[in-house]
Fold each of these.
Amino acid sequence: MDGVIRTRVGYCGGTTVSPTYQRIGDHSETVEVDYDPQVLTYDDLLAAFFAGHDPRVRSYSTQYRSAVFYRTTEEAAAAGRALERLQLSAGLVHTSVEPLSQFWLAEDYHQKFRLRSHRGVFAQFRPLMPDERAFTDSTAAARLNGWLDGCGSAGQVERELPLTGLSEAMQDEVRAFAGRRERAGRLVR
Amino acid sequence: MQPPRATASSTLPVLPLDLEQTGSFRTATFAMG
């Protein structure tokens, strides 16, 4: 989405200290989104969140549940309103709205999973980053990860793909994936 | 307490929304099932 600066996956919502994928304890798998409020609103993100999964499906595990973790009372109110609207149109929704306590960053191999899974693009892009943390925090990595997962508008891809440092040939590889969701009429932007 | 963030480096590919250009940002956190 335009306005997203970076994404990182991790664990939160529970009490276990220093969770890992193997020892997640009572946490849930989560995504943390850094965004530019001049471009994107919290309501926009809530809409994408609810469109990106089916919150009507009840999860029977804490690890894979639907939840909004708010930082401010404004975010809590916005999430509550979005939830109410969805319940009016879609019926029972199993999304929890709760305060964020602490976000624990997931292991490196979970970050930018789609990008890591494309050997050619990953092999060319990863050496551009000085270390794993820079890779995880990179806007370019977040964009590539989303494009390779079929996200992104044609305009965004044409505007930003040439700025990722990839060769022309590898940019073409990314173009083959980018925008598939929009073309299929699913999650856009 | 949140873990410290990496500092942007001039060696990174530069995108219009890189943190060093944007200046400020907010963070949202979700679990998507």
Amino acid sequence: MVSSAPALLSRDFRMRRRALLFVTLALAALGGVDALAHGVAEGDKGYIEQIGGAQIGAFLYLGAKHMVTGYDHLLFLFGIVFFLYRMKHVATYVTLFAIGHSTTLLAGVLLGTNVSSHLVDSIIGLSIVYKALDNMRAYERWFGVRPSTKAAVLIFGFFHGFGLATKLQEFSLSPDGLVVNLVAFNVGVEIGQILALGAILIVMGYWRRTSSFRRHAFTANAVLMTAGFILFGYQLAGYFVLEGA
Amino acid sequence: MDEQNPAIDELPSKRQLNRATLIAAGVAAAILVTTVLPAEYGVDPTGVGRVLGLTPWAR
């Protein structure tokens, strides 16, 4: 038994190192797409504005690309699934998020609502801060109650959808085939979300297997909160600097 | 900290939470002022952005 202790230790160490590698790779992948993040990429913009009529494939792709390369949506998703261990719970929360952002994406574009994308994006940054604090169970400590996480995910989903709507509205979308293209974009967003979620869950799965996960969970959510604050400040500054408000 | 509702004394303490939140906000503010704002908007109150070559006029 004595001789097995070092073996156990080293296995734990190897597993931890492997987990670290996965997290690093995931972060590198997120960092690598940085240039594409946020709006729809410049090259795609010209394309979107040229096409008239229904272009289901193109808008499916753009929706999926927007989600997979949009770090704000990914960080929020990461926060949502952080402590969801069962697929049933993952499905419930992700569905709530999808209902939230689809509603405002469709309504926002169809009603032509005009909101500052910087302001909406700063709220999206705050949604990440909120979820990180929720994961750290800060609301229980601070206020004695934990507000409904489901409601929070749905409500912040509305803001994420508004963010998507303002991005699409930055283009002079042809009214010809608008509804079909919009729905295709929305379906694309959901496909992108499932793909991104798959990647996040695989990484989380490995990470959770390590004995250090519980110890690092608090720090990880503090880092997530930092990222949320940075996005918030970045977008709020953009509102004041670029929109001269 | 997970969905299985641990007892309140197993949760992070108020002190830990306050400290983590302050550090998160502080680190975010520092990164914003020294790198993000200079690089994105040419707003460089500390001059660090210029030193790092992040401001448009430093390129």
Amino acid sequence: MATAETAVSDDLATAKRKRYAAGVLKYREMGYWAADYVPKDTDTVCLFRITPQDGVDPIEAAAAVAGESSTATWTVVWTDRLTACDSYRAKAFRVEPAPNAPGQYFAWVAYDIILFEEGSIANMTASLIGNVFSFKPLKAARLEDIRIPVAYVKTFKGPPTGLVVERERLDKFGRPLLGATTKPKLGLSGRNYGRVIYEGLKGGLDFMKDDENINSQPFMHWRDRFLYVMDAVNKASAATGEVKGSYLNVTGATMEDIYERAEFAKELGSVVVMVDLIIGWSAIQSMSNWCRRHDMILHMHRAGHGTYTRQKNHGVSFRVMAKWLRLAGVDHLHAGTAVGKLEGDPLTVQGYYNVCRDSVTRTDLARGLFFDQDWCDLRKVMPVASGGIHAGQMHQLLDLFGDDVVLQFGGGTIGHPAGIQAGAVANRVALESMVKARNEGRDIRNEGPEILRTAARFCTPLKQALDTWGEISFNYTPTDGSDFAVTPAASN
Amino acid sequence: MMTNPTGRLTQGQFSFLPDLSDAEIALQVDYGLARGYAWSIEYSDDPHPRNTYWEMFGMPMFDLKDAAGVLIELGACRRTFPQHYIRLMAFDSTRGVESVVMSFIVNRPEREPGFALERQEGAGRSMRYTLRSYAADAPEAERYRR
């Protein structure tokens, strides 16, 4: 017995000596490929779409992704042997060709829970989308989806308000909320800007919104904007008897600026503040904490996401961004319209909405969801559909997205031929008619246009809206559709 | 009369539409019942947007499975409070929701005088706003008298 044990330990020592001998090893030989690995419940699992350089073996490429997004460096280091290094190595455990995409592969990679600081999206992203996306042996890489373990989810507080409590605060139930972005984006003085807010809200919208690049430029200082906007919000509230809001964009150059602007919004009684995605993960989580302390709804405009979410072969899918943002803690998130002017095919966009609103998100390949994701009762994010939509699409929007969504008609309100209030009325009447009809059991997808025309008989502003925009649609082929056709098998 | 485009209080799901008939109300109630919601009836003479707690006209009808029952209760509420706001609300007790999921007004006072906006000027052009319901100026039992 003693002899056999000695032999085994000698073999192991020899193996370790070889593994850590100075030089360059293949990643798959360094422990980053483990075909028989079964992910633990506490592992984070990522699905990458990789395009290896010509001649690079896909398994080696997958192992390299695992390596470069966890512990690896390009050469062997003896200091690995001071650590329980196997824990820190991410493990690629499955690689298969991506459907209908020659040269592209799906690679599944598992990460131990020790790799990520609790409650820090900054830390998680520094690993998962840190160096690896610039790695030369890959032509391109994209993080398609992520399964975040329950244990890690519970280290986040999530949305400060959540869509259920938001509705309670606003006293608005059973229908999508209505909003509009103030236009033109740039150039209005604070006084003129407030006029647009007042007309939109009094006409029937629930929210107005600053645009992403409205901060504090020479034509309108942020304090001026906040003062005029809040006068408009309160006047509209008095005129309608409803709670109204306007997303005050507090995005600024520094965290100090952001806090200063948010404090002023709070002093003036705003129910909501807004930040842009480009302020970065740490700032987003800081603002989430601030909003939680001050009973404030946090609106997130995903400005900039298209630079890395849109191309199918490289970057990060928006469904991953939505998961991270739900953990980081935002209440509203722009998640696409499917029928409007901005990118997104309907099923893929529905996948983003599921991520925002589900208690448990189920695997649904047609919607681009590769994993089950238990959200552990984390509050739900209200998705926002904004960009090139109008009242004539109300049946499609309600059918695609249901009640828990903010529908934002910017041009579709402010560009109404009879004015902003008329635009708001058209949208609100279209919305209420469609909700009522759906609840009555009508097939809104097919009968929608007729339901709208009927409502337009008692509502001239809606008639004018339909006459102006009824035929407008944006039918371009999406660049980011599902890899899996919708068939009975896929929808199982 | 209020000055917004509808001329009236616009709280609830359907304030921009013509008033729902009892038959239309029953269809909405059926929609909620089919989803397992519990209906309840609330009334108020103070429609301030932050007046969350309207009076309950009885308990939520948790075990009621027929829209006709809700309509009977609504009829009783309308007879008792013809000049009050009355709303129907549906509750969803599903885990992760546990809140109101439908709410619409089914009775209104004849005249809806609306709200005054009071401004208290503060330092640096800042302002404190107060909404005051004109109807609520009268004592509780005397609002919205014909």
Amino acid sequence: MNSIEVNNLTKSFGKFTAVNDISFTIEKGQVFGFLGANGAGKTTTIRMLCGILTPTSGSASVGGFDITKESNKVKNIIGYMSQRFSLYNDLTVEENINFFGGVYGLEGTTFVERKKWVLSIANLEGKQNIITKSLPGGIKQRLALGTAVIHKPDIVFLDEPTSGVDPISRRSFWDLINSLASEGTTVLVTTHYLEEAEYCNNIILIDAGKLIAEGNPEKLKTDYIKHNILEIECEKPVEAMELLKNQDFVIDTSIFGNNIHVSVQSKTTTEKQIVEFLEKQNSIKVTAVDEITPTLEDVFIHLLETNKKKIA
Amino acid sequence: MLRRISAIVKKEVRQLKRDIRLLFVMFFFPVFLLMIFGYAINFDVKHIKLAILDNDKSIMSRDFINSLLNSEYFDLVNYIEGYSEVDSYLDEKIAHCVVVIPNDFSKKIYSGQVVQIQYLIDGVDANTAAIIRNYVTLATLLYNKNILSMMLTGQGIYVSTPVSLEPQFWFNPDLNTTKFLIPGLIAVILIVTAVITVALSFVREKERGTMEQLNVSSLSSIELILGKTFPFVIIALINAGFILLAGYILFGVEVKGSLILLFITTLVFISASTSIGIFVSVIADSQQFAFSLATFLSLLPSVILSGFIFPIDSMPIIIQIITNVTPAKFFIEILRAIVLRGVGLTAFWEEVIYLIIYTIILMSLSTLINKKRAQI
């Protein structure tokens, strides 16, 4: 069963098209990654799916409800958390939970139970009287998620939930997301941390409002990258990359830390060619050349580059 | 629905309790305005500084001077010695008014001729100058009457004044401007505090991103508005009661009419003010802008255009039409009717209906703008 179905969804603001003819489906209980650069149209799409923005054309259903005609029903079954962790900083932890519980009309034992649950996932048991402002980012993030799903929604939208949070908190936050999904909640999460995309069951990538790739992480790596990727460790990596970019045997280049990733057609011939090219012709010393399995980052950089060329 | 509204009310009250600054504004502002308007604004002209150049220095001239000084309206500054000093008294504002009595004052009166007395009045403040002129004219008339009857009595003729005026001022017998101002003051204070607090309360949620969270929730806008404004309406009502009490204790203004009617009409007015606050919050995205806009939209019209100080009837027609932008205009009419005149609903039902229509129009406008802006 599909939790979310999006058909040719488009949103324009005047002449600017923020979301351009996007279609995808999300199955129940999936963690669905929504990737793209800032301004690619991720937030606009989420806002449409939450029923606060009306699409210019196209349609979508969330939990079986039409987002334009039944936006009130949609709002009852979704949870939403933005990158701003929308909690009231001047209220205590418990007051925040009470407020959101009240907003969703929770009462009696259900409410007591859910409050306990939120406190436990945020590791705030016994600390409910702390003013929210003084909580560390990672804890605030978990509390924000807890209050966003206090009413046990079928579907949760997380708009860059991990921005501005340290790596360890991010890791444990993803464990929390996965445990929500394992209980049957559908999670749509946007991020621009590409390593986080690996935790998703399915991913779509959008660029300038258009969908440019979709599938599970493994499929993306094999489907979109037909060539080999070499990791080169050398002196002056930036300079070396610029030089390599214009060579015939090179398809694509990018910098990863101090290394260069180079996409090439065939492995054996070009490995030598590169070393020769850099050391002999440009006297840049090469320490190592290894073939690597592509990361999602390689895939996306490749896709974004090709898309850019296509537009140009 | 009640569960949700009460959750919002509780949240607002808790936030308010921790927001010392806003609390201060809400409770200090009314006291401050009450003091300023109650004590500083006073249109009663008393204790006019008077200087006298008495060239006659006779018993008659002294009598005349005493007739002026016997009232509380004039305070003698000094007797001026020569005509050359008169200019400097007015220039340096030592006196507001200089009376010049000619040297043949008593002689002319005894011989039955007309005496001309010169009054030099500082005309910079036209309002005060006009009042001074009225006072001296009255004082002179009274003096004339006494002289006449005295002279006629000396000739054995007794006269009585043919027409005697006895004006009685209803509703404000002492013609005390403070009494007139208190109802207006209640309106101004209520509208200013209601508009600012409501606007800030909504815009703060926008600024901090929590509004988005509420928009995505299943909360309806009616629930949100009722929940968020309820605490401020209660505070506004408390403030209104407080100003009435202060008006009674400090300025002796009593409520002559029905308290229930007063309560209901105040509630209607607060709704109208709240709708302005919501209108501001729909337009403004930052608390700073919201505060400026709220102050501008509430304070200025309610002080200048509401008839609080300046009578609307004496404004040009175009301005009179513009005065309808402030609900304070209508509430002041209602308040003066209830508090000062003690009359019932028949005297001001039109104003009540106008306030209700005003609220509906502004709320619909806000909803419309909000819907438009939400799509951006």
